[in-house]
Structure formats: C-alpha cells, structure tokens
Amino acid sequence: MKFWTFLVQPQIFFRGLYEYPTSLRWPLGIVLGAGWFRYIAFLIWIRNLPPILPTELFSAMSMKTGGHPYWIGVGLLGLLCWPLISWGIYGWLIQLLARCRGRAWQLAGWTYLPIAIVGLVMIGIAGIWPATGRVIPYTQVLALRPEETLINQYQTWLQIYGQILRGQAFMKILSGAILGASLWSLGLLYWGVKNIAPAKAVLTTSLLTIWVLIWRVL
Prior knowledge:
It is built from 11 helices and no strands. By secondary structure, it is an all-alpha fold. Helix 5 packs antiparallel against helix 11 and helix 6 runs antiparallel to helix 10. The longest helix has 29 residues.
C-alpha cells in the first residue's frame, strides 16, 4: 500500500491494511515519532536560549540531597515514555468502543501519523527560525529567592521562560498545526473504525473527539 493512498484515500488504505495480520511495528514507530519529533523541534528551536534543564539545578540538588537527582532522571524517562502511554490509552478507548481487539492499537498508531508529520516539519522550521529573546539566567532566580525550595525556584524560572516563548510566532504556528493534525487524525479514525465496525464509526469518532478536546485543554 502506498503512502499516497493513506493521504488521499484512507478508506481504501485501511481496507487493504485489515487484509493483513495485525502488526504494531509501523504504529509503534509512528507514535514515537509523533512524540519525540516535537521534543526535538522544541530543543532545536530554543538552542540560542538557556537550556530548559540548567546544570545549576542539578548541581544544587546534588549538594542539598547529597547525591544525584534521580527523580529528574525518572521524570525525563516518563517524558520519553509519554507517547507510549498516550497510545495505550487511546487504543484502549478505541477497543472499548469498537471492540476490535489488537486492531485498536494498530489503528490508533496510524492515526498519529499527521502529528508525526507536523513534528517533522517543525524540526525544519525550528532549524531556520530559532527562538529569540532574553531569559534571565537560572542562577539569578536562585540568588533572588534562596529561601524557596528548588522546585519552586525552578517553576518560577519556567514561568518566566514560558512568557518569552508564548508570544513568538513559532508557538502559534505549532498550535495551529497540531490542531489541524488532530482534526486530520480524527478523520483517519473514522475511516479506520468504519472498515472494522461500520455501525460504531460515528459514535466512536464523536466520543473520542470529545476526549481529544478535553485532553488538549488539560
């Protein structure tokens, strides 16, 4: 099956896909790409600004706790695994509504492809259009609020960081692209379910549209 068929005739793509045994290899790669491409694009975009995880934070934590900040490592691991968690929940909801067993996670993975495409495009945009502005060094926050806990100091610094980034065109482009990709994904979901359980296609897509809207807001 050609990629062009997936883009312009998803109903034919899914009909052909379901003629083969269920395989999660491609869906897994798509899901990881959908999550990690956006992380990579963001890191490339802020390359001229202070790192989002300053070394001073690790140093301060090591001095205060007497060891390495393992919880940050656990948090980063969770961030890397988050696309898989999201995929698992999404597939489970499709299975719950459409009763299509392993096909649910296969379909869920393929519907992430528009998000992955957006992430890949944003990597290119970030490469030629880096973020601008001045973010105060994290050390200044440490000096101004020494009585605060490390978590509160870091959260304050992230709020300042976020204010610099939110007003820039890149973030608006990314938000609009993600919204468009989400709508595209819901269209793919409809055609995917329609080829498995036609009677449940509208209900499944409608309920998951509500879920996606709530997910985005939260």
